[in-house]
Specification:
The protein has about 325 residues and is of the alpha/beta class. Helix content is about 45%, strand content about 20%. It has 14 helices and eleven strands. The strands form two sheets. Strands 4, 5, 6, 7, 8, 9, 10 and 11 form an eight-stranded mixed beta sheet that branches. Strand 4, helix 10 and strand 5 form a beta-alpha-beta unit. Helix 1 packs across helix 5 and helix 5 crosses helix 9. The longest helix has 21 residues. The termini are far apart.
């Protein structure tokens, strides 16, 4: 029953964010009536919400009607280090455009086709292009989801030996900025569509990196920029089926110097199912329903890289929040 009603828990957490429940309780015990008074909400309904949050172990009801915040619940406070508040808030936006496809999951399993196009009449990224406000929301969600990886990736590879690194499909530049901050001698190329790069100037300006990073608009299905010693590709390949991944990787191979590397940052599925990684398998279905892509095992990454003229040298699990991502290092075959 928990599996069947899992979406109700997600809505409950989103409501807590919208009403600032965790912020209002803070580091002390508060009554439901006090929280309702500050939130401007109905007292009885507020009590019911707080009890649901306590059942989810985000709050604790230490006495009838008296609540405090647990360590997990504190992550819903924007002021808490490592907070997930912004990501949870942006997931509301994401659900509005992704949930309709999930309503047709069985159809996607029958046919192998995405359901997004059936619902919206075009693929996901074409839809975003036609709706700038949704594109901006998507870019923000991707930025938030990348921050943890941006903190650990700079130490996972010897970027210091390079002159320039290119981030292919790098969006607002969150990941590339993390690498450039840790390696002051390094320059960057940020490559994405014009829509994808829309928030990048602000990211680079905020981090004082505008003079070390070139913004290059383009289409990675057509080409990628020359002039980098490493080509970084994060959360791109899982959006696409194998043939299109080979196209993207092939363009990187065409401009890769002899000692260059293609650095793929993606989750890597175990060869047999690991139930501890349930989120990856549900995410894989999301790729099927909304994008037409997939999550992959190491052997599946080796296959698409091999078809593009690349050889996988190593797969290293990255640390950081969630620990989902790996660094796949590939060289010219």
């Amino acid at each position: 029953m928990q599996l069947v009603f899992g979406s109700l828990a997600a809505h409950t957490v989103r409501a807590a964010i919208e009403l600032r429940i965790v912020e209002l309780i803070g580091g002390k015990e508060r009554s439901a009536a006090e929280v309702a008074a500050e939130a401007g909400t109905d007292p009885q309904a507020t009590l019911r919400l707080l009890r649901a949050l306590a059942a989810l172990r985000l709050l604790e009801e230490s006495a009838p009607g008296a609540f405090s915040v647990t360590s997990a619940g504190a992550l819903l406070d924007p002021g808490t280090p490592g907070s997930m508040a912004s990501m949870v808030a942006s997931s509301t936006f994401m659900e509005r455009i992704m949930q309709p496809g999930w309503d047709h999951l069985a159809d996607s399993v029958r046919t192998g086709d995405t359901s997004f196009e059936k619902v919206f009449g075009k693929d996901f990224f074409s839809h975003l292009k036609d709706h700038p406000e949704r594109s901006a929301g998507f870019n923000e969600a991707m930025s938030q989801a990348t921050r943890g990886t941006a903190a650990v990736l700079p130490g996972a590879f010897d970027f210091g030996r390079l002159g320039t690194v290119a981030d292919i499909g790098g969006g607002d530049g969150t990941l590339l900025a993390g690498v450039l901050r840790e390696h002051p001698s390094l320059n960057g190329i940020l490559y994405d569509t014009e829509e994808g790069l829309a928030q990048a100037p602000e990211t680079l300006r905020r981090d004082g990196l505008a003079d070390r990073c070139s913004l290059v608009p383009g289409d990675f299905f057509e080409s990628v920029p020359e002039g980098a010693g490493a080509y970084l590709i994060k959360s791109i390949l899982h959006d696409w089926p194998d043939d299109l991944c080979v196209t993207i990787l092939g363009h990187c191979r065409e401009v890769l110097p002899a000692d260059g590397r293609v650095l793929i940052v993606e989750p890597v599925l175990s060869e047999a199912v690991d139930p501890q990684s349930v989120g990856l398998y549900l995410g894989d279905l999301n790729m099927l329903v909304n994008w037409g892509g997939r999550e992959r095992t190491r052997s599946e990454f080796e296959e698409v890289c091999g078809r593009a003229g690349l050889a996988v040298e190593s797969v290293t699990r990255l640390g950081g929040p969630g620990g989902l991502f790996c660094l796949i290092e590939a060289r010219a075959a």
